[in-house]
Amino acid sequence: MHHNKTDIQGATDWVNDNHKEFEAKFMDLYENKIPKFGEPVDTELVRYVDGLANWVRAVEQWGFESERYFGKKGPEIGKSMVGDAVAKGTHGRYRPPARRRFFAVNPEIRWC
Fold first, then answer.
1. Hey, which of 1, 14, 43, 73 has its CA 20 to 30 A from 110?
2. CA 104, CA 71: separation in Å to the nearest integer?
């Protein structure tokens, strides 16, 4: 935040924008640019890349289903992607003053 001279919402927007960009790049590579080497390597490579995609998606889903980041409102927030950030270790008791559109924010972290 300090490096980019922004606040929590600006940092969150930056993370969200970069996430969308990386996701679009991954999907383009996945759908159009996986090289062909012949069998059985082609099948193994597709399976491996599928595993990478599923791993990332599973971690994201876990973040909403567990109470670690968003308290008991995780599933609701996961659907709308709008909610209050939960400070680490508070298990849903701390709420910042404003609602934010976010990817995952801990307002108590000071980024260098």
1. 73
2. 12
